Amino acid sequence: MAKNDSGKKSKVTVFLIKDGYSAIEDFLGFKDFRVVHIRSAGREIGTLVYKGGFQSKPAWVSIFDGIQGFDSKGIWNQSSKAIFVLKHENRWFCFTFGYARHLINELAYERNFGLIVSLNLGDPSGMKSIDKTNVGHVSLHSREQATREITLASFEFNDDIDLLRSVTAKLPRGAEDDQETVSGRDSVSIYTTVTIESFSEIAKRLFEAFNSKSYKKRYPWLGKMKEERDAQTIDALDSILLSRIFKEEFENVWLAIPEPVVWEEIQGFAFKYRAEESTKAGPVLYQDLDIGEWCKVARLDPDLTAKQLKTKKVFVYWQDRKDPSSWSVYRCLNAEIDLNHKKYILNDGDWYNIEPGFVAEVDAFYRSVPNSKIQLPSYGTNTEPNYLKLVATSNVQYALMDRKEIMIGGGRSRVEFCDLYSNNKEIIHVKKYGGATLLSHLFSQALVSGDCFLHEAAFRAEVNKLLPQGFKLANAKSQPIAKEYEVCIAVMSEVRGPLELPFFSKVSLKHAARNLRNLGYNVTKLKIPQ
Questions:
Q1: From CA 373, how far away is CA 525, in angstroms rounded?
Q2: What is the pTM of this model?
């Protein structure tokens, strides 16, 4: 065995393969890669799969191509990939280096392995950063970083509307003040001492942390959403999902990127692969993922199965011209489905069973939001802007405020005060029903606007400039009395019966309405029928 740098500290990234895979070839694609069986102390401890010499032209080269005196022939980015695979407790562990993670079948590794390990190993008061997804804005990923180690509760994390995706934390100090760092979501990255002999010990340590239930005691709210593992239930959910896709029933089914990305590095998304050197036109690049557009391009076979769906890809084209990356379309799909009186959410390639108590809590709050006594006409065939104009021009009680944005946050963003404002101090926010993301934007606008209206004189002054005569505030400098105002959340819906919202929208409404109530407003909901 070749010598190694004993005691050298470095960051290793590890994936845990799901149970049931017997051979490396079952979850790893390594055609044209070199394979070395690593031995130590007379026994085989693992397999190294590697390849070097990957070349790509830097994106900036194209800017200067053709300029006299500029020779781009020798300008290349070069990279390598490697995976070290070993078995512990009859489970496969993959230690990845470079961009090798893409060699692993993305449906083969354990979801949230890194998150669970990081929460169990990390010092509860040693958190450095978190990644989260707002369940009201399913495609909204965000990261918060602390300048020093803090507790998870010290981050701006609301367990009602935020889903924890990954954490970075310091481990408790060792005997010689040797403090390691761990982070992860699906994979786990740990900065520790690495030698050939230590890989097995690292795998053992991570596996023990993955099987520990300590994190559930520290963070009991994580149980609000649980991964569904029953094969028959998953098959039934997938069948319903496919049926909705074929029927183009996209009300509670949509596409979203499954992980945070640096948008400046992305050229676009495609539903078909095209090699960079190809002379053929296309594919069309999209700036976001849209399920309707995907269905048009995919031309789905009516006999498509969930297994076949999982093989279809969304491709990410990069600005620096490196080979496109890809996600399984199934991993990008999001859905809300009710089955056998239970609520299920598809997110990041896995189905989650929402805790009945949390569903009951959200539904109870939704019912507690009273229906408004405001009477608005049916919208018929009108679009949202046309409908709002119609209401304001046909009824002198209402002022049109739609698309009249006010700058807030020192000029970093804009918000509408509302869509309609009445001379009875009714602040009405209107949106045509369009799924969880659109509705959550409506609720967020209501909350931000309500807070600014109450606490910022400059905001009220801008509102007063936009309000027509007969609706203006008597004194914009004076703080309003919130209880004198009704904040009405109005949804234009063609569905018959009482107003019903997707579960994630109800969660988002709960967050907004509760905060508006705390500010003193009277909060109501209203259905505008077709």
A1: 9
A2: 0.67
Q: What is the pLDDT of residues 166-175, one digit of tens each?
A: 999 999 876 5
Around Cβ 1, how many Cβ atoms within 10 Å?
11
Report CA-CA distances (Å) from 432 to 397, 414, 508. Answer: 22, 21, 16
Listed in sequence order, the residues at least 6 apart from 86 whose beta carbon sits closer than 8 Å to its beta carbon are 45, 46, 47, 92, 93, 95, 199, 200, 203
- C-alpha 526/C-alpha 521 separation (Å) is 16
Mean pLDDT over 170-193 rounds to 82
- Residue 481 CB-density burial (10 A; 0-12 exposed, 13-18 middle, 19+ buried): exposed
Report the interhelical angle of 113-121 vs 198-211 (nearest 10°): 90
pLDDT tens digits for 63-102?
888 788 888 888 887 778 899 999 999 999 999 998 788 8
DSSP 95-111: EEEETGGGGB-TTTBPT
- DSSP H helical ranges for 87-185: 113-121
User: Which residues, at least 6 apart from 311, have a Cβ–Cβ distance to it below 8 Å?
Assistant: 328
> Beta strand pairing status for 43-56 and 77-88?
antiparallel
Query: What is the rounded CA–CA span in Å between residue 167 and residue 152?
Result: 9
Q: 279-329 pLDDT, tens per residue?
A: 455 578 887 788 888 998 888 888 889 889 988 999 998 888 788 888 899
Write the CB contacts of 341 (distance below 8 Å, at least 6 apart in sequence): none
Mind giving me the DSSP string for 440-478? HHHHHHHHHHHHHHHH-HHHHHHHHHHSPTTT--S-TTS
